[in-house]
Design a protein that fits this description.
alpha+beta, 7 strands
């Protein structure tokens, strides 16, 4: 008798799971099985990426938006920018940041893979990562101003010489114009004010996909910023 009851309960569980799988998004199934709510933390691959609100860290998100020349009406719901940062979290190691807490050329090279994965045609992207000090990471009202001269990663996928981050571009014969009609990936480390100008020349009436958040890795807390936009040319 007990065996029949056990089999009946097991069958009911299988049918319930099958119904949920057919009707509910995977994200909701995750919450149903493991708990959790509708917060802004990314959990798909164990990434603890949490979006900042307007008041966190003394309004740090607003400071960054100001450095990028963005208002609330310029920004769309984070999607590709969040996914890009999930890749960044997986790749980040100490060698990617200089002693001045800025991305370096090793970081640029690693982030080229993220750009290759996440950039759509005729789009631009910028990414910034910085370590937050223990006191700053713990304080909700910490002073976290971002200088307009601070450098961050910027990349584009658009027409050019056909190179992929400086490799494999078309060679130009002496006296001939450069090749400009091939699909090309480029990247650089640029100041916020320069990226601001690039975002400002994006396609008319288009919005910027922006994510500003924090994550922890190897016991350290980091600020993470990503923005993607459609180029205006």
């Amino acid at each position: 008798m007990k065996r029949k009851k056990f089999l009946a309960l097991a069958l009911a569980g299988v049918m319930t799971a099958a119904t949920l799988t057919a009707c509910a998004p995977l994200e909701d199934l995750y919450d149903w099985f493991f708990g959790g709510g509708s917060g802004s933390a990314s959990r798909g691959n164990g990434v603890n990426l949490v979006e900042l609100n307007d008041k966190d860290y003394n309004g740090l998100k607003k400071q960054i938006m100001d450095r990028l020349g963005l208002n609330d009406g310029d920004v769309t719901t984070p999607d590709r920018s969040r996914k890009a940062l999930e890749e960044v979290v997986g790749k980040l190691d100490a060698a990617m940041l200089d002693t001045d807490n800025k991305l370096n050329t090793a970081g640029q090279k690693a982030l080229n893979d993220v750009a290759k994965s996440q950039l759509q045609w005729n789009n631009g992207m910028c990414i910034d990562v910085m370590k937050l000090s223990p006191a700053r990471a713990a304080a909700a009202d910490a002073d976290s101003a971002i200088s307009e001269d601070r450098t961050l990663y910027r990349a584009e996928y658009t027409n050019g010489n056909g190179g992929i981050f400086g490799v494999g571009g078309a060679e130009v014969e002496p006296g001939q114009p450069p090749e400009t009609g091939r699909e090309t990936y480029t990247s650089d480390l640029e100041a916020y004010w320069s990226v601001n100008a690039n975002i400002g020349s994006r396609k008319d009436d288009s919005k910027v996909d922006l994510f500003v958040g924090t994550f922890t890795k190897n016991g350290e807390t980091y600020l993470a910023v990503a923005a993607l936009w459609e180029l205006g040319w």
